[in-house]
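Consider this one:
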Amino acid sequence: MKTEISKTRTITAWVIAGLLTALYLFSASGKLFLHPEQMDQIKLGDWRIIIGLGEITSALLFLIPKTNKQGTLLLSSYMGGAIILHMTGGMSIAMPTVVLLLVWLVAFLRNPQLFDLK
């Protein structure tokens, strides 16, 4: 059953999804090109290319309407890993938690049936 989504809801979802995608692309560019030494500090330097490319792929899947469910799943997993990394590193989990909540908000705005427990 397809639920009709209001124009305001659609625009809101697109704006937040666009901002999140920009954030993920910026983050991935840092891993790949700008500050690769940061990945060495958290002992993930050998994985930075795979992590960066995975982040780009997940963000683009999240942005595209036909694949946003898969992107939501991948970004949720990615952010779960980021939260764990922040917890074990003694860093604040506020930022990755807020980003994860925004990913879920976009998923709900675009696909309200995802959260229907019937």
Q: What stands out?
A: The first helix runs from residue 7 to 34. The helical segments are 7-34, 37-41, 48-63, 68-88, 94-110. The CA atoms of residues 84 and 93 lie 8 Å apart.
